[in-house]
Automatic annotation (TrEMBL):
<dbReference type="InterPro" id="IPR002716">
    <property type="entry name" value="PIN_dom"/>
</dbReference>
<protein>
    <submittedName>
        <fullName>PIN domain-containing protein</fullName>
    </submittedName>
</protein>
<dbReference type="InterPro" id="IPR002850">
    <property type="entry name" value="PIN_toxin-like"/>
</dbReference>
<dbReference type="Pfam" id="PF13470">
    <property type="entry name" value="PIN_3"/>
</dbReference>
<feature type="domain" description="PIN">
    <location>
        <begin position="2"/>
        <end position="111"/>
    </location>
</feature>
<dbReference type="InterPro" id="IPR029060">
    <property type="entry name" value="PIN-like_dom_sf"/>
</dbReference>
Amino acid sequence: MRLFLDANILFTAAYSPTGISRKIFSLAEAGHCTLSTSAFALDEARRNLAAKAPNHLQELDSLVRLLVIVPEPNPETVLWARQLPLPTKDAPIMAAAVQSGATVVVTGDRRDFGHLFGQTHKGVAVLSPRETMEYLLKE
């Protein structure tokens, strides 16, 4: 299973070594899934850590080794994602997940993605970290 991680999952995994987001990385390291993200999401996570918790940047850098950085999505796919609807800042996340062939986009962003939780669009399910863990543990 290929998971696409939103910036908030990257931030949380770097910030909290005992949280669910970090456990997703542990499952990937054990071979239960592959993790991907985009440079766009990684840059956002890095900026947020630099502003809010700069002492955790090194932790993010150590987690990057477990990620496949996928190409940025084409404009047509971003436009499609905006019509889900997703805000301009979040459409590239869903678009990159779809274009990269991810199975799940993992996000903790309930404000912008919450209306999509539990739904599948173009083959990509939108799940919270907890839902993703439950899904992985059933596999």
